[in-house]
Amino acid sequence: MAAMRSPTVKRRRIAQELRRLREKTGMTKGQAAKALDMSPGNLGRIENREITARPVVVRAALALYGVTGDAAEALIELARGATERGWWHNYSDVMPDWFGFYVGLEEDATQISTYQAEVVPGLFQTKDYARAIFGLTSDGTDTDQKVAARLQRQEILHRENPVSISAVLNEAVLLRPLGSAMAFRTQLEHLAELTALPNVSIQVLPFGAGGHPAMTGPYSLLQFPDSMDEPVVYLENFTQGHVLEEPEHFTVYQDAHDRLRKLALSEQESLGRIRELASSIG
Prior knowledge:
alpha/beta, 434 Repressor (Amino-terminal Domain), Endonuclease, Chain A, six-stranded mixed beta sheet, 6 strands, Cro/C1-type_HTH, Transcriptional regulator, DNA binding
């Protein structure tokens, strides 16, 4: 079992395992809930990750499903970790629950593939660029906290065993200035600097590429170190984010990302385009 940092991923694994083990025994939710002295609704919320199962509940469920010994103790230890608070909980007053869930997944990801059509990805944003974004997309309150949370997310790029990220940016991202001219130039220069990291790939999708597979909108694909943790697709709009966990969804988006990379400029050509645009800003 690969080491997990994030309580979100631990909670996801526990929910997945409890559901899998119950179904393996042939028990319905109602039957299992009655044996565990809880309502079927509560068991359902545990299996759907809506609430975190306390270790004592996990121990009782595993005993009911016939799981004992080291296998049980490993899952109970995960359950203990799932009750912890990730760093993002310190920003819960400015970070919606649905985005906090995504950040918790992002924290444990080993590979992120993303396409952005309008803005620089949050993991690549400078402080001033992020501030300009929040000035346009939020009510203007608690901006310092929102920016701080965004910058803290970026630590996954520089930690030991950093996340690998493949980002395809629509050329519009590089041509749409945000904030002051110098702040935008600094953002483009920062993008160029990030390409020097061995775990970061940035490609520019030029307007000349014409139509492409991601014309329906931006996305992020997250993969995890343990094969038991299924990869996810993350989609976001103004008011909420959606995590798609079905394998067929991930396959479709992964295929689209692969095709998008072939249409985009190479990494070296993209670096040249980024530097060219940065140098054109006075």
